[in-house]
## 1
Amino acid sequence: MNKQSGIHYLREHREAGSSNPVPAQVVRIRDTVVAGLGDLLQGAFDAVDDSLFELANNARSNNEQNRYFEAMREIRIKRKGVERHFQNAVAQLFANPPQSGSVAADESLASQTSSDSLSLVATTTWKNRLPSMP
């Protein structure tokens, strides 16, 4: 970027102000993970596209077929942005890994498993909920 233009991007300031440089091994691992997960995400998008195309071919009406094609178009338009956002989010987790003892993590865990929400269940009730085995 030309510094004389007067435009300063926040991303550059955050990266320049990073007090914890990431070790080279972590950078290599991050790049490998981001590339691998990116490939998996691309495969998922390709599979969705193929499935929608197949559904459009088997559609019973023209209206139904148009809805599948519209969904395909919408996914294709947003695909690159989703892939970029996903890769940036994964890379950001490597730059700022979540702390296991953080207050936010503890609060979310506590809200998921509260002792007030637990209760005893009668034997017949949980047996009825189990799938029947042949």
## 2
Amino acid sequence: MQLLYGILIGIEVLVSIVMIIAILLQPSDQGLGMAFGGAGTQALFGGRGATNFLSKLTGVLAAIFFVLSISISLITGPSKSVVDKVAQPPAQHQPVSKTSGSSTTGKVKTTQKKSK
């Protein structure tokens, strides 16, 4: 089960990296596509070819990403939320009993050195 989990995580990381690249390369007038070579994709696929190919690729990669995410969550099984683990009630403390002679009023006795 651990091997399958590791393989799915690795595939999901690769899909997410390719999806980020596909989104950044989509041609636009002012987007990051031009900074990372978006004009080159227009020469490769034609004016509309790059838009159609990259938008279809982005949609397919997004669908694969969602399926992988759901598969990974099903493989790990039902688990408690992190909030449930943190929101446990605090431990019960023993009440402090007051005994005669040992109670303090908060005053601290200080001694001062006399300078000559």
